[in-house]
Every structure is written in structure tokens, then in C-alpha cells.
Design goal:
Blueprint lengths: L2 E3 L12 E3 L12 H15 L4 E6 L3 H6 L3 E7 L4 E8 L2
Antiparallel strand pairs: 1-2, 3-5, 4-5
């Protein structure tokens, strides 16, 4: 499961939209399900006319990099630093 959110990072309200809440049940991990979900959200954003999409992740940045996402920076929360990533939707 995953979602396309208007706003998913309270520290970066200037960025929108967001790929958020990506979850693949462990029984299906490694079967390409995450990639299918990522592409589905990217396609939904394109259909809405979006040119860029964002996400934050604590430890899955390699997954997103494999799918064409780029590291943009770090979002610093009090108890965690998250990778901020983006992907042009051209």
C-alpha cells in the first residue's frame, strides 16, 4: 500500500505532492511490489499534472534511488534525521 499526499512533511510545507506510507508485507518483500507501488503513485501524480514528487525516508533511500529518485537533503526531526528525496515527473 502507498499514498499520494498533498503534504507529508510539516517541516517542508513548500514541497508538494508526496509519495507516502509505502508498505509491503514482509511475505511479498523482494518480489517487485514496492516498485509497482512507487510507479503507480508517480503515474497518479502525472495524471494530476504534477511535475515533481517528494518523499522522506529513514532507511529506504536505496530502494528509491533504484527507481530514479534523487537525494535532495535531510529533514531533521527531534529524534530522527530523514532523507528528503525528489523525482521529476517528465
Amino acid at each position: 500500500m502507498t499514498s499520494l499526499f498533498e503534504d507529508d512533511c510539516e517541516l517542508r510545507p513548500d514541497l508538494r505532492p508526496w509519495l507516502a506510507a509505502l508498505f509491503v508485507h514482509p511475505d511479498h518483500s523482494g518480489n517487485g511490489v514496492a516498485g509497482l507501488l512507487i510507479r503507480a503513485v508517480e503515474q497518479a501524480a502525472r495524471r494530476l499534472g504534477e511535475k515533481m514528487i517528494y518523499l522522506t525516508t529513514k532507511d529506504s533511500h536505496n530502494l528509491y534511488t533504484r527507481h530514479g529518485w534523487q537525494h535532495t537533503g535531510i529533514v531533521q526531526y527531534p529524534h530522527d534525521d530523514l532523507y528528503l528525496m525528489h523525482k521529476p515527473l517528465i
